[in-house]
Design a protein that fits this description.
Layout lengths: L26 E5 L8 H14 L4 E5 L5 H5 L16 H6 L4 H4 L1 E2 L5 E4 L5 H7 L9 H12 L6 E5 L6 H9 L2 E7 L8 H14 L5 E10 L4 H14 L3 E7 L2 H5 L7 H4 L4 H16 L20
Parallel strand pairs: 1-5, 1-6, 2-4, 2-5, 6-7, 7-8
Antiparallel strand pairs: 3-4
Helix pairs in contact: 1-12, 6-7
The protein binds adenosine-5'-triphosphate and magnesium ion (MG).
Adenosine-5'-triphosphate binds next to helix 1, strand 7 and helix 10.
């Protein structure tokens, strides 16, 4: 089990060399923490939106049977007997659908979504007998990268609150883990299990996998407990802690019920500002320009779902 601060460790947790320019290949980040309700989905949606509004092309993949990323971007739940059924990541993982076929537009032109679906509950079992079961998502992303005329700059994978086969597919496909944490007494509970999972996945399937960063969510710096827990987390994670913290903000919590990211719902809110900061910090850490200056930064539009 990992006991050292990840920032100082050699191996999969060690700092990787940042790329100097916008790469043709997407940067693939898994938003992961097996603990429920820590802000994974909120971060996937709002970081994705913030990067897209900076002009980067972003693909969000909803790997969670709860499909909250899908719902939060305004896609309603479908009944089982409704026709046609919207294609989801389930159809991609179990084949023969491609990511390109399942892709949906969102209210931000540069942000696209591969929906989740409750069928994913069964995928954990159905995938067991499938060839290359751990590589299904990675293979699908490779096909997309090889065939799409407009490459994505970022692919964000919203994971379920479990270290299951769906999360394993995300970890095998990803280059980095983005771990949202709440500054509470039990924040580090489960983290050593997550870090040892990262190490094992890196050894067995994906040597390039590392920890991109740890993000404090729903943060309230007025309490002594938050400050104390934050100090402990900084001591443990070192440079891997994002400087940006996401405050608890009602507009962030309200935005999904309007089917849009907080940057569209209330761009001036503290929550929207914090996710903008996070996007800029991520770009800076990866030595990417603060704005992609491409056509992707068009104004948000109404989409028909
Ligand atoms: N910064 C914030 N301010 C206020 N509420 C927030 C914030 N971030 C998340 N929430 C709320 O906290 C709850 C949990 O957030 P979220 O769904 O993003 O967590 P999760 O880790 O994806 O959960 P799960 O493990 O179930 O997938 C949601 O109701 C969300 O609206
Ligand atoms: Mg979630």
């Amino acid at each position: 089990m990992q006991t050292e601060a990840p920032g100082s460790a050699a191996g999969p947790l060690a700092d990787t060399q940042p790329s100097l320019t916008i790469s043709k290949l997407p940067k693939i980040l898994a938003v992961v923490n097996q603990k429920g309700g820590v802000g994974k989905t909120t971060t996937a949606i709002n970081l994705g939106a913030a990067l897209a509004l900076e002009g980067f092309r972003v693909l969000l993949i909803d790997c969670d049977p709860q499909a909250n990323t899908t719902g939060g971007l305004g896609f309603r739940r479908q009944h089982e007997d409704e026709k046609p059924q919207r294609l989801s990541i389930y159809d991609v993982l179990l084949g023969p659908t491609t990511l390109a076929n399942a892709m949906q537009d969102t209210s931000i032109p540069a942000l696209q979504l591969i929906p989740g679906s409750k069928n994913l509950i069964g995928a954990n079992i159905e995938l067991v007998g499938v060839e290359r079961r751990e590589y299904r998502l990675r293979d699908a992303i490779h096909v997309l990268s090889a065939t799409t005329p407009e490459p994505f700059n970022f692919i964000l994978l919203d994971c379920p609150p479990a270290l299951d086969l769906l999360t394993l597919n995300a970890l095998v496909a990803a280059e980095g883990l983005l771990v949202p944490l709440q500054a509470e007494y039990f924040a580090l509970e489960g983290i050593s299990e997550l870090i040892s999972t990262l190490d094992r996945v890196a050894q067995a399937f994906n040597p390039g996998l590392g920890l991109e960063g740890v993000l404090l969510t729903m943060y309230d710096d007025r309490t002594n407990l938050s400050q104390q827990v934050t100090e402990n987390l900084k001591a443990f994670f070192g440079e891997k802690m994002f400087r940006t913290t996401i405050p608890r903000n009602i507009r962030v919590a309200e935005a999904p019920s309007h089917g849009v990211p907080v940057a569209i719902y209330d761009p001036k809110s503290r929550g929207a500002e914090a996710y903008r900061e996070l996007a800029r910090e991520l770009l800076q850490r990866n030595q990417m320009p603060q704005s992609a200056q491409n056509t992707a930064a068009e104004l948000p539009q109404e989409v028909n779902r």
